[in-house]
Structure prediction request, 321 residues.
Amino acid sequence: MTARRSPARRVPKTASDSRVRTTLKRGTPRPPATSPRNAPAAAPSATSAAAAPAIRPKVTCADLLAAKRAGRRLVMVTAYDHPFARLADAAGVDVLLVGDSLGMVVLGHDSTLPVTMADMLHHARAVARARPRALVVADLPFMSFQVSPRQAVRNAGRLLQEGGVEAVKLEGGTRMLPMVEAIVRADIPIMGHLGLTPQSVHRFGGYRVQGRGEAAGKMLLQEARALQAAGCFAIVLEAIPAALAAAITAALTIPTIGIGAGSACDGQVLVLHDLLGVNVDFAPRFVRRFGDIGRAARDAIAAFAAAVRAGEFPASEHTYQ
Ligand code: KIV
Prediction:
């Protein structure tokens, strides 16, 4: 583990650590590729897909709700810049999240707390410029919404108006309801975030699994219901026991998107750099590395350095006459 960690990524790997043990079931069999659960949120009809090239419609919040009703699993990844937003969109994800994890993943901070509205707007614009088909959601960073509903609406509005995103995400439950309601009243789509909410790291005393035990589980279920009633169109559930995430998912009509919350959620989200394996020495329990981009990047840079030092690069074909 390096010093740089994303919130959920702070949850240590060891299952014997009682503070962080999760019941993530990685090996749970998935439905076959033809199942509606494997189709993108805004999948074209079979006839339109056969007749036309694969131009898929823009994903909307309504599509995410429809995906839950149809039992289609949702896929969300973080994106912080233009090239990776394009790559993730080309891969067919449903939602791109400009997460405040960018503070740790690409800016080198130790937590998400130093991330500012200026940081979020800068990265949101880069992602939005990719004009992705996926729904683009941006995090409201620490202290951009906690002060008052008025502050929350103003900053949520800036993320849409200046950042070019289509929805915002906000961490917290009952205490954040006035902010959520105000944002909804301003016609700004909002995603909730419960469980291990990284902006609360100092209250939690670390990045620990949340919702363990009957009382804590009941409280999270109540908070999820309240966020739905307040108008959230989806809720991220981070680092909570799988059984609790399953109960919350079953109780809601809006989709849940899990990270370290088991396989019963309506969708899954991972930090893009984690799933790509950008950080070669980082492998927490809730992440599966689907690529080895870190190693590939390091090897390519080392090959460039060796070619320069050996005088092999640039060769004549790289040189203007
Ligand atoms: O900021 C982020 O990347 C997130 C995800 C972990 C859900 O909030």
Observations:
- The pocket of 3-methyl-2-oxobutanoic acid is lined by residues 6, 8, 78, 97, 99-101, 139, 236, 259, 269, 271 (CB under 6 Å).
- The longest strand covers residues 190-195.
- Residues 1-36, 44-49 have pLDDT under 50 and may be disordered.
